[in-house]
Amino acid sequence: MSGGAELLAELKRRVGSCIDEAEAKLHSLSRDLWSRPELAYEETRAHDRLAELFSLEDGWTVDRHFKLDTAFRASWVAAGRGPGGPGGQGDVVNVGFLCEYDALPAIGHACGHNLIAEAGAAAALGLKAALEKNQDRAPVRAQVTVLGTPAEEAGGGKIDMLREGAFEGLDVVFMAHPSKEDAVYLPCVAEHDVTIKYHGKASHAAAYPWEGINALDAAVLCYNNLSVLRQQMKPDWRVHGIIKHGGVKPNIIPAYTELEYYLRTPSRNELPVLKDKAESCFRSAAWQLAARCK
């Protein structure tokens, strides 16, 4: 085995050993997040658990409320050998790891964000241990940065953080996502979120139903239109949604309804095509509702 291969094997052993040593606290973190799910932008307990974990580790600097209230940044910088010598102020390679920790309403951590948090923390601790052990032999200084990124399930916390400059200075960023299979790369999809609102006219459903214009009918027609469209959709396109608001009471003709849909395609080039088809489904339901107003 060559010297480079031996060093790589040594570093991998060091990473694995460090993660094994931290197994109990990492699993405890994951179980705690799983048992106490929190929604987007409200992940105060999960945020505090992760920030505390790094605060108790040697050498980490923790910014507990980094850009967002429930986001954090933990960082560690190796001494290394930059152009200025050991501990110099030369180039720093900044390696980032992401931790997600918000959950879905009602169902909790169905997407395994508790595991994403555990994996991100584990990888960061392992890399720090490997770099710390060999920092005198490193040609450049290295930094390990952990970003706690809230609100993945709703709102787009990473987008908020990106706009605030949270990712500036990072050279590469890693994140692991739980899956039923091992994969180095997971394909991304283009997504468009849309809210559809229909306005009708309320009336008493028993006494004067002919006076009303039922917005729920439009919502049902919209839902069914999209269901019929699926026969002409490509196999890797996805359209899924819910009726968020369907009315107030059974004896009141609904004057307002609202649906929320996610549209997904493998590439951004295909997304406008799907959007146009879906919008035709939305509008056709509206036209039928408008016809009743004449």
UniProtKB/TrEMBL annotation:
<comment type="similarity">
    <text>Belongs to the peptidase M20A family.</text>
</comment>
<dbReference type="GO" id="GO:0016805">
    <property type="term" value="F:dipeptidase activity"/>
</dbReference>
<feature type="domain" description="Peptidase M20 dimerisation">
    <location>
        <begin position="194"/>
        <end position="284"/>
    </location>
</feature>
<dbReference type="InterPro" id="IPR011650">
    <property type="entry name" value="Peptidase_M20_dimer"/>
</dbReference>
<dbReference type="InterPro" id="IPR052030">
    <property type="entry name" value="Peptidase_M20/M20A_hydrolases"/>
</dbReference>
<dbReference type="InterPro" id="IPR036264">
    <property type="entry name" value="Bact_exopeptidase_dim_dom"/>
</dbReference>
<protein>
    <recommendedName>
        <fullName>Peptidase M20 dimerisation domain-containing protein</fullName>
    </recommendedName>
</protein>
<dbReference type="Pfam" id="PF07687">
    <property type="entry name" value="M20_dimer"/>
</dbReference>
